[in-house]
What we know:
about 400 residues; oxidoreductase activity, acting on CH or CH2 groups, with an iron-sulfur protein as acceptor; eight-stranded mixed β-sheet; FRHB/FDHB/HCAR-like; FrhB_FdhB_C; single chain; alpha+beta; about 35% helix; binds flavin-adenine dinucleotide
Amino acid sequence: MTSVDFSKHKKAKALKPSSRRPAKELCSECGLCDTYYIHYVKEACAFINQQIDELEEQTHTRSRNLDNPDELYFGVHQEMMAARKTEPIPGAQWTGIVSTIAIEMLNRGMVEGVVCVQNTKEDRFQPMPIIARTPEEILAARVNKPTLSPNLSVLEQVEKSGMKRLLVIGVGCQIQALRAVEKKLGLEKLYVLGTPCVDNVNRAGLQKFLETTSKSPDTVVYYEFMQDFRVHFKHEDGSTETVPFFGLKTNQLKDVFAPSCMSCFDYVNSLADLVVGYMGAPFGWQWILVRNERGKEMLELVRDLIETQPVMSKGDRKAAVQQSIPAYDKGVTLPMWAAKLMGVVIEKIGPKGLEYARFSIDSHFTRNYLYVKRNHPQKLEEHVPEFAKRIVGQYKLPE
Ligand code: FAD
Ligand code: SF4
C-alpha cells in the first residue's frame, strides 16, 4: 500500500451521538459517522453502498470465484483450517487466537496500535472501542461484546496520533467501511483481523434476549450459538447453561436482532486479511480463513502456539434449512422437551464442520433476504451481493 498525503482528504463534521445516521434504521453503529470520515459515508457505508465485489478486488486483488463452491460461501481464501490454542487464554471467547495474534503483532513491532473493543467499567456488555498500545490493553478487550460496537469511532485518533502501522480487529460492516476509507487514513500498513458476525443486537435488545432465554440473565458473562445447535451461556460462577436453538422463543425474539444484522450478507467478513471464527470447525475448535498474504503473515506469528487440523464436512444441510424457513417466518416455538429432543437428534445426524457453516449461512441469508424484500424492497437488487443471491436461490421462499 502506498502512503497517502492525508492532510488532503476531505473532512466533515462528525455526527452527535443522538443524531440519526445516514443509513437510518439500517445503521449498525460501526462508528464511521462518529468521525470526520463521515464525509465518505455515501460510498463507504455497508448499508448504503454494498460493494463487496469491488472491495474484494482492492483488498485481495480479485473478487471471489462464484463457480468455486467454497469461495461462493466463504469468500476469497488461500487456506482454511481448524485450530485452537494449546494454552487457551482464560476468559477469551474461544481459545483467544484473535487476542494472541494481536499481542504478537504489537510485541514484534509489526504495528504500533490495535483497534479493538473493551467494555465500560459499569457494564460488561457495553462496548468501548480503543486503540490498544500494550498487550494488557489487548487482553482487556478479549471476549465478544455481543452488541453493535462503534469500532471505527477511534479512526480520527489514528490519524491524529501519526501512527503508520495499524491492526484493526472487527466485524464485517465495520471492515467494509474501513476498506472504503483505507487510503485516506495516512497509513503505511494496515492489517485487518476479522471475525464472522451474525444476529447482533443493541444493548436493550441484548437485555431482552438474555431475559427471554437465560434462567439467570444478570450473571451471564458470555454466550455463543454453538455447533451443537445450542446456545451456551457461561455464568459468573463458571457454570454453563445450554438452551437448544429450537427452543428459542422466536415469536418474542423476532424483533430483537438489529435491522442492520437482518439485512447483512457479509457473515464471513469477506474483506478481512485473516478471519477467525468457529462455525466451520468441529466443536471446541476455532475456524481460520487466510484470505491473502497479510493474513498469512499474521497467522505465521502464532503457528507454534496453536494446534491445527484440516477442515472437514459431513451431513446435508439442505432439508433442515428449507424446513426452518417457514418455521422462523411464522415464529414457531417448540415446547422445551421437543426442542431438546430435536437438538439431540440433529446433533447426531445433522451437518458438521463446513456443512454446519453452510447451514448457518443459508439459514441467515434466506431470513435476511426475506427481511430486505419485505422491508426495503427498493434496496433488494443492489444491496444483496451476487454470491448471496445464488445461495438464497437454492431454496423456496414464502412471499
Ligand atoms: P478473543 O481473543 O476473545 O478476542 C475477541 C476480539 O473480538 C477482541 O479483540 C474484541 O476487540 C473483538 N470484539 C468483541 N466484540 C466485538 C464487536 N461487537 N464488534 C467488533 N469486534 C468485537 N463466529 C462464527 O464462526 N460464527 C458466528 O456466528 C459468529 N458470530 C459472532 C457474533 C458477534 C457479535 C461477534 C463479535 C463474533 C462472532 N463470531 C462468530 C466470532 C467468534 O465468536 C469469536 O469472536 C472468534 O472465534 C474469536 O474468538 P477468540 O477467542 O480468538 O477471541
Ligand atoms: Fe454511518 Fe456506519 Fe451507521 Fe453506516 S453503519 S450510517 S457508516 S455509523
